[in-house]
Specification:
The chain is α/β, with parallel strands linked by helices. It is built from eleven helices and seven strands.
């Protein structure tokens, strides 16, 4: 069977990607080489027919998905390099620029950077895709198929990856903070903690499904639930007066800036 992909690092994210890819028939398990220092991570996929190899043998595949921690990449790159122009490297590593990745691997390979988010494990990731040095339209098409198996993809300039991380990569954290605050507020107005937890989770689930299915602009959704002179309008007014919107913007901006700083440190 012709090899299609090598995967370096089979953690939670790459596991979700592989599960989606195999479930949707994007790739056959026999065409995907796997390498990881922990053999327990490879057992299930080996059972499906994925060849398990030392990381040095991943070069047999025309494309390599690098899913190691950024701090582990230099050592991994030393085992892979040099890669030629016939190799595509797909990175899910935050903070490592495509020029740096390419240089560490010998300076000739093609690079595409991606930034999925935690939704990958549920098949509803929001993945940003940024074409790097040497990448072709065919490379883009392959990456779109790969990450399309775990959710939605959007192509952006690499300079916007830190911003994409701040919005969608870190985004679940903003929602969880909202959920925590809603829980505390529910307790403050008289509910016990367990009931407050249930009410908050179900409320956010319903809102998320509405966002997914309605297609309405956010302002219209707010207007649809905030009757003039009603309870929702009163609550929204006080939240805005207390800087809710400004706090969200400041938080996302801070996350973007931190991503840019990490990227600059890598250069």
């Amino acid at each position: 069977m012709e090899l299609q992909l090598g995967v370096l690092g089979v953690g939670h994210l790459s596991t979700a990607i592989l599960q989606g890819v195999f479930e949707h028939g994007v790739l056959d398990p026999g065409s995907v080489l796997l390498a990881d220092r922990d053999p327990d991570r490879l057992e299930d996929f080996a059972g499906l027919g994925c060849p398990v190899v030392p990381s040095t043998e991943l070069v047999r595949a025309p494309r390599i998905l690098c899913a190691v921690r950024p701090q582990d990449f230099p050592a991994a790159a030393a085992e892979l390099a040099p890669l030629g122009s016939e190799h595509l490297v797909i990175s899910v590593m935050a903070g490592l620029g495509s020029d740096s990745i390419r240089s560490s691997l010998g300076g000739a390979c093609r690079v595409v950077r991606t930034m999925p988010n935690a939704g990958a494990v549920l098949g509803c990731s929001m993945t940003a895709v940024a074409r790097g040095p040497g990448a072709t339209d065919d490379d883009d098409a392959f990456v779109e198929r790969l990450f399309g198996a775990i959710g939605l993809t959007v192509e952006i300039d690499e300079r916007m990856l830190s911003a994409a991380t701040a919005v969608s990569g870190s985004g679940p954290g903003w929602v969880y903070l909202l959920a925590s605050a809603m829980h505390d507020a529910a307790v403050a107005v008289g509910f016990d903690s367990q009931l407050a937890d249930t009410k908050v989770r179900q409320t956010i689930l319903a809102a998320a499904r509405t966002l997914e299915t309605s297609g309405q602009p956010f302002d219209q959704l707010i207007e649809g639930i905030a009757s003039k002179g009603g309870t929702t309008e009163a609550g929204l007014r006080v939240m805005r007066e207390n800087g809710f919107v400004e706090a969200v913007v400041a938080g996302i901006t801070a996350a973007r800036d931190r991503g840019d700083a990490l990227g600059a440190a890598d250069q």
